[in-house]
Amino acid sequence: MIAFGPDAVEERDIEDVDDLRRWVGRHRVTWVDVAGLGDAATLQAVGDAFGLHRLALEDVVNVYQRPKIEPYAEHHFVVARVATVGEAIGTEQISLFLGSDYVLTFQERPGDDFDPVRERIRSGRPTIRSSGPDYLAYALIDAVVDGFFPVIEVLGDRLERLEDDIVERPSQASVTELHAVRHDLLVLRRAVWPQREVVHALSRDTTAHIAEETRVFLRDCYDHAVQLLDLIENYRDIATSLHDLYLSSVNNRLSEVMTVLTLIATIFIPLSFIAGVYGMNFSVESSPLNMPELRWYWGYPFALALMAAVAGGLTYYFRRRGWIGTGASARRRDRTRV
Known about the structure:
The protein has two domains: 2-247, CorA soluble domain-like (Beta Polymerase, domain 2), CATH 3.30.460; 251-337, Methane Monooxygenase Hydroxylase, Chain G, domain 1 (Up-down Bundle). Helices cover 61% and strands 13% of the residues. It has helices at 18-23, 40-50, 54-61, 115-122, 126-130, 133-146, 148-168, 172-204, 212-278, 299-320, 326-337, and strands at residues 2-4, 9-11, 29-35, 68-71, 76-85, 89-98, 102-107. The protein has a seven-stranded mixed beta sheet with strand order 2-1-3-7-6-5-4, sandwiched between helices. A hairpin with a 4-residue loop joins β4 (68-71) and β5 (76-85). The protein is rod-shaped, with a radius of gyration of 37 Å.
């Protein structure tokens, strides 16, 4: 719990929920942060202490909520998603209650993006210390939104590395990682899209819980959410383009392999024809037209020389046409550049 006003701040861990009642109202703002949702009795006691609606408490425990805002008579209830980075990128639910003189936050587990907000309160920053709970709620929501930017930067670095790998050495491992990045981007988009609408609704809400001065800051937070969504959409487009680039690179490699195999087969076709002709062994004793080279002293060297000449001629022709050699390499670079 952190209770503060313009001239004082008190911070402590609460071991007994009953202690909360004597802190509420002692300062201008009371912020209670609950880390962990495993103790139903504690959650109910906190709800009773602040008069939280029963349906809102049910949404707090059900951690698969879509980001949303629900106004009640005595408080506003906001559900947000915070980005998490582990073996895979995911999101966790943050539930926030905004009352007349308090802010409650419920987290799935300890560890959050709220440390900068706590430091601002402890250091006596005049804006947050002299403002009401609505500004504190804005600061917390803004911290949640800004927490997505480092995660998206990580995905951007992964996409840059994947682009280099796909261009230089495309492999199935690159495609697997690319699909993982696309999945992570989809997870973030599902969280940021409705969260943007939540911030927009708060900035336009005319409730007494949110002052007109705070709506200006909420509109700035809304701009950050829009930037996040734009980045996610751009990276999704890049991921799709990289997938197309991989398919193009694989097709180009297959085309090159098929070209080499075709050229080799083309060179050996006339050689096979020559070897087949000279392998028929028609007897010259039966007819003077039957393979006179069989009795020729230079017949075998002549056949080999003819095959070498045909192979060399075809290779020279293919090289002049740019199908093999430096011309083919230049054409492949041009296709990749396009």
